[in-house]
Write a structure and sequence with these properties.
heterodimer; A: mainly alpha; 68% helix; globular; B: alpha+beta; 2 domains; four-stranded antiparallel beta sheet; 7 helices; 4 strands; 39% helix
């Protein structure tokens, strides 16, 4: 019994390098900025203002089914200036998350903001946006501010030790398991649909005009290729919640997942979505490996920052 | 100190086990037992948007492509064509920027997004007190995606034209503004 508990504690709380979660923090912050500034930016009030695409009455009744939801924007959605100020505060929090300043507070603030945005207008969010809200939730409890971060510099200057109760590791494990849940759900949902065996799922998805991105030179008009791609998708998604836990196979699985998401990003117009998933894979990479890669990059770029930290 | 660590680790362990147990139940095919088990936590999960479904393109029944086009009639009788954003009519970067509103029209219109809100959104840029918009008539133009392996003349890069039309609604903007 004691050994089970020790293994459990070892899995969830053994201190690990914060490098992977630190890089993940930077990537998530960049994707949030891309979404806020480039995709929502000028249309913010159209999505969330008092004259938004979806009226508040329809929202409450159809989307919320008259259940209570957390929506900070309801406090001031009648005033456009207040809504804009709130939106700019979310951009500010994303910048803080990017540089790792007040990291936990910024992540928590963004998490509440993303929950509010998704509750206020569910139609704006896709799977990538949903994953970012879970990412900010777990980043709030992580050691993301202990790597390539202003918080880290402040901590060194104050000569403070980072906490050692293991909540940082717990948060990263939660992210890993959350990601495994995402792939498991996607895998089993596809497994019960015959369209993923006969290739028609890939065929029709790739023929949706609203999702066109880059030309595929006719490969998606061939049902045999669609069938093979459907099976490969199942294989990779199946591996992403099972084989990814085996250290010897991990990098092959992660590599295959990167290729899957890059391929989808190449063919489908899903900005940010696929890149959020690719970025999230880093939580499976040991911090020491990530740190080594970052240092190699820093050496190439001759960045002095890492020398001091 | 050690006791405090143990206590925190125990609490975090309970949170993680409970969370993933609930999420697993949430994602399983629903039945009466699961429904009853989830009943106490459902309001909490909805409130904090912890409810989740990740079945990307696992279930779909749409085998058509479509676009929308509206005729906006003004008070003086002039008619103007209004169109929601269409990926094929946008530049590469505008297509990426407008992705969310393109998706809004494709997936939500007539489903969770009602015609009243859609009409208001499409006509808002043309509001003019001297010559206000009077009616909006919105049509859906669509075509079937060629059946897989049908040796169709059309392809992904050269899709069939949207030559079928369904009239969706005619919206009386004047009446709506009086309400």
């Amino acid at each position: 019994m004691k050994s089970i508990w020790l293994n459990w504690v070892n899995f969830w709380f053994r201190p690990i390098s914060p490098a992977s979660i630190g890089v993940y923090r930077i990537l998530i912050a960049l994707f949030l900025l891309q979404t806020f500034i480039f995709q929502i930016g000028g249309d913010f009030l159209s999505w969330f203002g008092k004259d938004s695409f979806i009226s508040i009455e329809n929202l409450k009744h159809t989307f919320w089914q008259d259940r209570p939801r957390l929506d900070i924007m309801l406090l001031f959605y009648q005033q456009d200036w207040a809504m804009k100020a709130y939106f700019y505060s979310l951009i500010g929090a994303s910048l803080c998350l990017l540089i790792g300043f007040a990291t936990r507070f910024s992540a928590g603030y963004l998490c509440l903001g993303l929950i509010s945005m998704q509750n206020h207008c569910a139609a704006y969010a896709n799977g990538g946006d949903n994953l970012m809200h879970f990412a900010t939730l777990f980043l709030t409890f992580s050691a993301a501010g202990d790597y390539l971060a202003v918080d880290q510099i402040i901590q060194i200057k104050k000569n403070q030790d980072s906490e050692t109760i293991g909540m940082d590791t717990w948060a990263q494990r939660m992210l890993q398991l959350q990601l495994a849940v995402v792939y498991a759900n996607s895998f089993f949902s596809k497994m019960i649909s015959p369209t993923w065996y006969d290739g028609s799922a890939v065929y029709y998805t790739m023929h949706y005009e609203e999702l066109y991105h880059l030309p595929a030179f006719g490969i998606f008009d061939n049902i045999l290729i669609c069938r093979i791609l459907g099976w490969l998708t199942l294989l990779i998604e199946g591996s992403m919640f099972s084989l990814v836990w085996i250290p010897r196979l991990r990098y092959y699985v992660l590599g295959a997942a990167v290729l899957l998401h890059l391929g989808m990003n190449f063919t489908l117009n899903l900005p940010v979505f696929e890149f959020v998933f690719i970025a999230s894979l880093i939580v499976f990479v040991p911090g020491e490996v990530t740190d080594g890669i970052v240092r190699r990059f820093a050496k190439i770029l001759r960045t002095p920052f890492l020398k001091s930290t | 100190m050690l006791q405090l660590h143990c206590l925190i680790q125990s609490i975090l362990s309970i949170i993680s086990v409970s969370y993933f147990l609930i999420v697993a139940l949430w994602l399983l095919p629903q039945n009466v037992v699961i429904d009853q088990l989830l009943a106490p936590v459902r309001p909490f999960f909805f409130f904090f948007h912890l409810d989740q479904r990740w079945a990307f393109y696992a279930h779909f029944d749409r085998k058509t492509n479509c676009h929308y086009s509206g005729e906006l009639t003004f008070d003086d009788g002039t008619v103007m064509i209004v169109e929601p954003p269409r990926l094929d009519k946008l530049s590469y970067f505008e297509g990426i920027r407008k992705e969310k509103s393109i998706v809004l029209f494709t997936y939500y219109l007539g489903n969770q997004w009602d015609y009243h809100d859609c009409a208001k959104y499409l006509t808002r840029p043309f509001e003019n007190s001297l010559n206000p918009p009077k009616y909006l008539s919105l049509n859906k133009f669509w075509s079937d995606i060629p059946v897989p392996g049908s040796n169709s003349l059309y392809s992904r890069e050269h899709p069939p034209p949207h030559d079928q039309m369904t009239h969706l609604f005619t919206y009386d903007l004047k009446k709506a503004s009086e309400k």
